[in-house]
Automatic annotation (TrEMBL):
It comes from the Bacteria. PROSITE patterns: 4FE4S_FER_2. NCBIfam families: MoCo_extend_TAT, TAT_signal_seq. Residues 753-783, 840-871, 872-901 form the 4Fe-4S ferredoxin-type domain. This is TAT-variant-translocated molybdopterin oxidoreductase.
């Protein structure tokens, strides 16, 4: 099998008649750059002959002007320390361990701090630290420096002191108890044992009821686990122990049950000793898990329920009736039989919001005695109960609640009927909410209590049974805020601080570590019982689930996007500009629909003259609720008869105007069920997307992504599945590595850096993109500029769909006249060309500056702003750059970024760099680039040089993994897809990776000799 498949980024590329697509293949921008604006009076220039000498005068003038502008830097006065803190050395960063949990995301972290200012989040890799940061956790540091945070308490909507706020709360509680009204404490999931203890004491003293509520519910799974195992938790599946993985509607590489499963998953996905795990995915929306699957079957949620019953029948010998057509029955039976054969080395997971479905999943894993399930740790990251929340809402609207105190939730926004909740809260005698922002719930509460960011607080977490994590503050609170726990102590009349209370309670959880050691490490782990034997009536669950039937025209599947999650950080510009891994759209949410269904309704996506993507609008109706003018994305892989729509958008309260984007999908989250029966109609009009899928494209190049099957990988030599490009030398076919137009130089002295990217391990999660953003002061440019192909990300993750197995098959189909006019009529051939849009294979490929040893950019720079180093870096001297953009034109990888504008201190770009508080996140080790210069990936040279200097100062060699942890993208990668290191150090892991048979370079035939290399993707089909 050839590894040279045809890849495409959008459905439009399957059309032979798109001039825009052809233009984008050959040009960075679809429209000519308006050079007249740079050369003065355009009309005068066009009406008079201009000689070469005149042209050079204009260019010389513009160059001089750019150089002069570059010298006009602002002057800031510095104030020295009077007494320098002992722990702080100016210019040297400190690392502190902490932990993160916001009710949705969680991680064990290290936080980089400069002169007492946290600037960067890293992964804590100490033993016992189980969870790495995703893109949202990496971006959370910017949310601390959000100037629109709530800065002090509000009483009746007006600023107040904490004494006044506390007095109002105490009076509200006393009045509620005097009148016999219920006192309710509504929080998100509490994963902190100390906070839970404090809440229990508060509830007992005040006769209060504590209810935990998750905006995106996992109640069905938690209820099923509790029914089987007796406690509210979830299974922390270890996918590294599985040879066969079957997922029915569970995006476990995304946000399913909190995420964090990607590390274990990818351990089995790297072909080793001729083996790798196999992955079946049955789903409606195209997800990260579906994109990584070996076999993906698009199905409606109703069909998924039937598929789950069929799998149970095959694996556990059940006899529940199943209603599936022959095509799906064959696919599901095949997966079920392989799952049964895998036995304890198999695992099944499901994301269906149905208790019976979750019980079946547990029953199937028990029948398999799955190693990924039996004995697995128990997660405590989702505890919300739909039943308790529904009962509370009933009491609230019926007037039974006398006082309501909330923390970590925003029900006025996230509840399906947020308006009814808001009206009920307004009518309450007393309500208070702890919040980071003056959000939708704060605006209807009697008292809004300003909460601190997690980097300003003390706390603890028990994310899984047997692990105890600590949260420590890295900075004094920026505003007049108090912790929820501190307030509970104050309302109880306790003189104790929460730090003292926490430290006293922590003694019950620290096993073998002192308090100081636990704070230093950030986590304390000990042996604890995992998932044990449990009893359940799986047959009854299967019988109930088999009754599922679809109603309505479409089944709408609500989900969380990789960028915004549940919407807590919707005011974070890093996350708004982050392109979705699947659709490649930023600054929007949208309804996804299959091309088959879109054609029937008359909806489309099209690439317009400026290279931007436009799409139709739709109206979506669920029950009696309607969302108008929802943008439409025609999504390859979307199951017929289904729609996808992400929550977390459409927020208005306390949001910067530029971040008020998208539509709020929570009103359609009826009954806390992610699947709804829906109708969709064409609303007319055209929406402009900020979509990067067709920008900076490498389309048309045959060796962008190389892939093969496990069978071919095992049976054939590497020359078959990883062929070396050949060129003609003296009329002889010669490997491209043997031919060189450049004079080589010695690379064996000192350090020489390479970056390895394994396409089998990359899930497209985007953590590396945000980590690079944070480390290198990458500016946010906004939706309008992204649409103009001007996004500034130094690292992008290209997403490719593949059509036919090889280019040759595509060409054969196009050229074969009979293929176009065969049995299927005139649309036979071209119609079949579009069939992959129903269920394409997907590949992710991170692309950054390739740091070519023979770099085309260096050849053409007229001022030597870009040059090469012995260590393998392709340097950029910003002060030398005059913005000719020759280097960008000559770069075959399209990885260089041009600063069209000054993004710092510019009101036209009202994001963190235009805000005094937001600029606190900037890394002082990296220049903030000015208008008119090129920038791109630097291999985080500031960090690698710090590693070298630290080792030199300590008189030791660089330790194992130090260089990998210094590079932002590789340090952030939790799957091991990215590895950074020194190829001149024979003990470095990068050496073995470079010598691996799967290694290849991007566009190797160009002869640029990059210092970034990739590993061929292998599919276990």
């Amino acid at each position: 099998m050839s590894s040279n498949k045809k890849y495409w980024k959008s459905v439009e590329e399957l059309s032979d008649n798109s001039s825009i697509v052809e233009t984008l293949k050959n040009n960075e921008f679809a429209e000519p750059i308006p050079v007249d604006e740079f050369l003065g009076n355009g009309e005068a220039l066009s009406s008079s002959p201009t000689s070469r000498r005149d042209f050079l005068k204009f260019v010389g003038f513009s160059t001089a002007a750019a150089s002069l502008a570059a010298c006009e830097g602002p002057v800031h006065k510095s104030i020295p320390y009077v007494v320098q803190p002992e722990q702080i050395i100016p210019g040297v960063w400190n690392m502190y361990a902490t932990s993160y949990f916001d009710g949705f995301d969680f991680a064990n972290l290290l936080v980089k701090s400069r002169e007492g200012r946290p600037i960067k989040i890293e992964n804590n890799t100490i033993e016992g630290a189980r969870f790495a940061a995703n893109a949202r956790v990496h971006a959370s540091i910017l949310s601390m420096y959000d100037s629109s945070r709530l800065k002090q308490p509000l009483v009746a909507g007006k600023p107040a002191s904490w004494d006044d706020a506390n007095a109002a709360v105490k009076k509200g509680l006393a009045d509620a108890k005097a009148k016999g009204g219920q006192v309710v404490l509504l929080t998100g999931t509490i994963a902190s044992p100390t906070t839970q203890k404090l809440i229990n004491e508060f509830a007992a003293a005040n006769g209060a009821r504590h209810i935990q509520y998750d905006a995106v519910s996992s109640s069905a799974a938690v209820d099923a686990f509790e029914a089987v195992h007796g406690e509210r938790g979830l299974v922390d599946y270890d996918f590294s122990k599985s040879d066969l993985i079957v997922s029915v509607g569970a995006d476990f590489l995304g946000d399913w049950q909190g995420g964090g499963f990607d590390s274990g998953y990818t351990k089995g996905r790297i072909p080793a000793n001729g083996k790798m795990s196999r992955h079946f995915q049955f789903e409606s929306n195209m997800t990260l898990s579906g994109a990584s699957a070996d076999k993906r079957v698009p199905m409606t949620p109703t069909q998924q329920k039937q598929a789950l019953v069929l799998i149970y029948n095959v694996v556990a010998g059940g006899s529940a009736p199943v209603s599936l057509d022959a095509k799906f029955t064959a696919e599901v039976t095949k997966a079920a039989q392989q799952l049964k054969s895998a036995g304890s080395r198999g695992v099944l997971v499901t994301g269906l919001d149905d208790k019976n479905a979750q019980l079946l999943a547990l029953g199937i894993n028990q029948a398999l005695a799955s190693q990924a399930y039996v004995g697995a740790p128990i997660r405590y990251v989702r505890k919300g109960s739909d039943a308790q929340m529904t009962a509370f809402l009933s009491d609230l609207t019926s007037g039974k609640v006398g006082a309501l105190i909330m923390s970590g939730v925003n029900p006025a926004y996230t509840l399906p009927d947020g308006k009814a909740f808001a009206d009920a809260v307004k009518a309450l005698p007393f309500s208070a909410t702890f919040t980071l922002r003056d959000d939708e719930t704060a605006k209807v509460s009697k008292v809004a209590l300003a909460a601190p960011h997690f980097l300003e607080t003390w706390g603890d977490l028990e994310l899984t049974k047997g692990t105890y994590s600590l949260t420590q503050p890295l900075i004094r609170p920026l505003f007049n805020t108090k912790q929820f726990e501190e307030a509970l102590l104050s309302w109880a009349g306790s003189p104790s601080t929460y730090y003292d209370y926490l430290r006293a309670n922590a003694a019950n959880h620290l096993v073998g570590k002192s308090w100081n050691q636990a704070v230093h490490d950030g986590v304390c782990a000990h042996e604890a019982p995992g998932v044990g034997a449990g009893s359940l009536d799986a047959a009854s669950a299967a019988a109930a689930l088999s009754q599922a039937k679809a109603t309505g025209d479409f089944e709408l599947v609500l989900y969380t996007k990789t960028g915004l999650g549940d919407g807590q950080q919707a005011n974070n510009p890093w996350l708004q500009e982050f392109p979705d891994p699947i659709s490649r759209v930023s600054w929007d949410n949208y309804v996804t629909i299959s091309k088959f269904d879109a054609d029937k309704i008359g909806m489309e996506n099209k690439i317009v003259a400026n290279g931007g993507l436009n799409g139709s609008y739709a109206n979506i109706t669920v029950g009696g609720k309607k969302l108008d003018n929802v943008p439409v994305i025609v999504q390859p892989g979307q199951a017929h008869g289904t729609l996808g729509l992400s929550v977390g958008y459409g927020r208005k309260a306390s949001m910067q105007e530029e971040m008020q984007v998208g539509v709020n999908a929570y009103p359609l989250y009826i009954g806390f069920n992610s699947v709804q029966s829906a109708k969709i109609t064409n609303a007319g009009g055209e929406h402009e997307f900020a979509c990067v899928q067709s920008q900076k494209t490498l389309m048309g190049r045959g060796d962008i992504i190389k892939e093969t099957t496990l069978e071919v990988f095992n049976k054939e030599n590497a020359e078959v599945w990883n062929p070396m490009p050949m060129v003609s030398l003296d009329h002889q076919e010669t490997p491209v590595t043997k031919v060189d137009l450049w004079e080589s130089f010695d690379q064996t002295t000192g350090h020489h850096f390479n970056l390895s990217i394994d396409l089998n391990a990359c899930t497209g999660c985007g953590a590396c993109v945000i980590a690079c953003h944070a480390e290198n002061n990458v500016p946010v440019v906004g939706k309008s500029e992204v649409r103009r192909s001007r996004d500034m990300h130094w690292l992008r993750i290209d997403r490719y769909y593949s059509s036919e197995e090889t280019f040759a098959k595509d060409d054969e189909k196009k050229e074969n006249f009979d293929g176009l006019w065969g049995d299927k009529g005139s649309l036979g051939g071209f119609g079949e060309m579009e069939e992959p849009a129903d269920n394409p294979q997907v590949a992710f490929q991170p692309v950054m500056c390739q740091h070519c040893n023979h770099a085309p950019c260096e050849t053409v720079c007229p001022v030597a702003a870009t040059s090469h180093s012995r260590q393998g870096h392709n340097h950029m001297a910003y002060n030398r750059c005059v913005g000719t953009r020759y280097c960008a034109n000559n770069c075959p990888y399209k990885v260089r970024r041009f600063n069209w504008f000054l993004y710092n201190h510019n009101e036209e770009f009202p994001y963190n760099m235009n805000d005094d508080l937001g600029r606190m996140v900037l890394n002082p080790d990296v220049n903030v680039r000015s208008r008119g210069v090129m920038e791109k990936c630097s291999f985080c040279i500031q960090s690698t040089q710090a590693v070298i200097l630290n080792a030199k100062r300590a008189g030791r060699p660089v330790a194992k993994g130090e260089f990998n942890d210094a590079c932002a993208c590789s340090a952030a990668c939790s799957t091991g897809a990215m590895t950074f290191g020194d190829v001149n150090d024979k003990e470095d892991a990068i050496v073995e990776l470079k010598n691996n048979e799967r290694m290849y370079h991007l566009l190797e035939h160009v002869g640029t000799q990059p210092n970034v290399f990739y590993h061929v993707k292998v599919r276990n089909t």
